[in-house]
Amino acid sequence: MPQDKAKRQARREMRLMQQESTWLQKAVFALGKVDETREKIADLNEQESEPFVLAIGRKRVSLDEIVEAIEVEVKQTLETLRERRGMTPRQ
User: Which residues does residue 61 pair with via DSSP β-bridges, in sequence order?
Assistant: First the structure.
């Protein structure tokens, strides 16, 4: 029976990792929509769209950097899931 519990826990962990990855992918999509909307506003005002930058403490982080970091995390999570499921990683 302890093996069953360990298997259930492993499956639950993999499902949660998949959910995390899905939500992060949705976040990337939403951030893309933010960027598109900012470009439309700039076009409407006949201006150049300024890069979206967040101030986090004393550091300034661009939207592109955030998206790239999320995409790296998603890729790593999906690779981990493939390995755990015994699938070969995509090249």
Answer: 54
State how far the Cα of 44 lies from the Cα of 52, in Å rounded to an integer.
Answer: 17
Single-letter code of the amino acid located at 85: R
By the 8 A CB rule, do 71 and 28 touch? yes
Write down how long the chain is. Answer: 91
State the chain's maximal CA–CA distance in angstroms: 68
Find tokens 């790593």 and name the residue.
Answer: 76
Low-confidence ranges of the chain (pLDDT < 50): none
| Residues 39-51 as b or e (16 or more Cβ within 10 Å = b) | eeeeeeeeeeeee
Does this model's pTM top 0.85? My answer is: no
* Alpha carbon distances (Å) from 1 to 5, 6, 46, 91: 7, 9, 68, 38
